[in-house]
Amino acid sequence: MTGNDLPGALAGIRVVELAGEASAYAGLLLAGMGAEVIVVEPPDGHHTRGFEPFLHDEPDPERSLWWWHYNASKLGVTLDLGDEDARDRFRSLVATADVVLESERPGRLGDLGIDHDTLRADHPELIWVSLTPFGRSGPRSQEESIDLTVLAAGGPVWSCGYDDHAIPPQRGGGNQGYQTGSVFAVLSTLTALLARDHSGQGQFVDVSMHAAANVTTEFGSVQWLVAGDEVQRQTGRHAAIEPTTFTRALSADGIDVNTGFPPRSARDFAVVVEWMESLGLKDDFEEFFFLEMGAQLEEDLHLSQVGQDPEVTAMFGAAREAVRFISENITAYEFFIGAQERGLAVGIIYSPEEVLADPHFQERGFPVEVEHEDLGRSFTYLGAPYIAPKSPYRIRHRAPHIGEHNDLLEALA
Amino acid sequence: MKSEALSHIRICDFTGQLAGAGATRWMAAFGAEIIRIEDPVRLGKWDVLRGTSPFVDDRRGHEFGGCFNNHNVEKLGVTLNLRTERGKELLAEIISVSDAVTENFAAGVLERLGFGYDRLRKIKPDILYVSNCGFGHIGPYRKYKTWGPIVQACCGLTFTSGLPDMPSAGWGYSYMDHHGGNFMAMAIMAGLIHRSRTGEGQWIDMSCTDAGATMLGPVALDYTVNGRPLRRDGMPYSNRSQFPAMAPHGIYEADGHDAWLALAARDDRDWQAIAGLMGIDDSRFDDLTGRLAHEDELDDAVRAWSSGRDRFKAASELQAVGVPAAGVAKPEDRIDNDLNTEDWGLWPTVTHGEMGRVRVDGIPAHFSETDWVLERGGPLLGQHNRQILGGLLGHSDAELADLAAEGVI
Question: Mutate which of A48, A170, A197, A369 to disrupt the B interface (most B C-beta within 10 Å)?
Answer without folding.
Answer: A170
